[in-house]
Amino acid sequence: MSRAIKIGWCSLLVSVVVLGMKAGAYLLTGSVALYSDALETVINVVAAAGALTALWFSELPPDDNHPYGHHKAEYLSAVVEGALVLATSAAILHGAWDGWNHPHRPTAPFLGIGLNAAAGVINLLWALVLLRCGRRWKSPALTAGGKHLMTDVWTTGGVLMAFALVPLTGELRIDATVAALVALHILWVGYRMLRESVGGLMDEVQDPDSLNRLRRAISENADGAIEAHDLRSRTAGSVTFVEFHLVVPGQMTVEASHAICDRLEAALREEVGEAVISIHVEPEPKAKLVGVPVL
């Protein structure tokens, strides 16, 4: 079992435990804000199960139908999770509307606050773990899961604020107002998650800093070549795809040019980790003088 899948199983377990705590808090209080918090956690459980499935599928080796592997399964999971976040915000807004029209004072507030606060702390700690692992391992599924859990943390913060303000002000509609504000924040996060995930599915170009690191690695490790041009790169899950043309002197032997390519592939993998690299070797007349110069 890979480390990413182990993290996926832990995410599912954490989501189930937190759901139990938040559902208990809602049943004790009847709060609309706590209802919105518990509802989002139901989505967390579904999303964690989907992410776990995507992580398992993405690690399958290439086959005849998927010669480039199954890495994009993680983007599909992230898209589904972003859609679930949007659906959650709509459900919370609906609950907030009902709470605004039929306000009531929450019962057993202190016990509800305690359960909800403890669940929020668990979510915060696990969200930080997911975000760190997602960035380190270049896993869209884990990163999306971490961002989703952070929206849950915001929800919990809003709920606690509502519970503090209702007894201080005596205004019962604060409960529903806070739930609505939290839903709008979740809506924005869900949009960003969808935007990033769809970008990955569409092979969106890497950010300028990543491309500059690739250019530098090529320039510093292509001794014997003339230039590299038409550099293109994309990511699919944890794998980076890199391709470019390498111009070498016309009299250079195949063996010598192959040695340069081997050196470049090692340097690029050192830079980006797991990678699929395609280098098209060309003779000197193909030089464009606008590509990556060799130092």
Structure description:
The protein has helices at residues 3-29, 32-58, 73-101, 109-137, 140-169, 174-201, 208-221, 254-272; strands spanning 227-236, 239-247, 275-282, 292-293. With 295 residues, it is an alpha+beta fold. It has 2 domains: 3-201, Up-down Bundle (Alpha-lytic protease prodomain-like); 208-293, 2-Layer Sandwich (Alpha-Beta Plaits), CATH 3.30.70.1350. 42% of the residues are buried. Helix 2 (32-58) runs antiparallel to helix 3, helix 3 packs parallel to helix 5 (140-169) and helix 5 packs antiparallel against helix 6 (174-201). The protein contains 8 helices and 4 strands.
Quick tags:
295 residues; alpha+beta; Alpha-Beta Plaits; four-stranded mixed beta sheet; 8 helices
Order of helices and strands: HHHHHHHEEHEE
What's the total helix number?
Answer: 8
CATH superfamily of the largest domain: Cation efflux protein transmembrane domain
Broad structural category: alpha+beta
Task: Write out the strand line-up for the largest beta sheet, numbering strands in chain order.
Answer: 3-2-1-4
CATH topology of the largest domain: Alpha-lytic protease prodomain-like
> Shape from CA axes?
elongated
The CATH architecture assignment of the largest domain turns out to be Up-down Bundle
Helix share, percent: 55-70%
Cα-atom radius of gyration: 25 Å
* Number of spatially distinct domains: 2
Largest sheet: 4 strands, mixed
- Total strands: 4
Cα(first) to Cα(last) distance is 43 Å
Strand content: 5-15%
- Just give the CATH class of the largest domain: Mainly Alpha
Question: How confident overall, as mean pLDDT?
Answer: 81
The low-confidence parts are: none
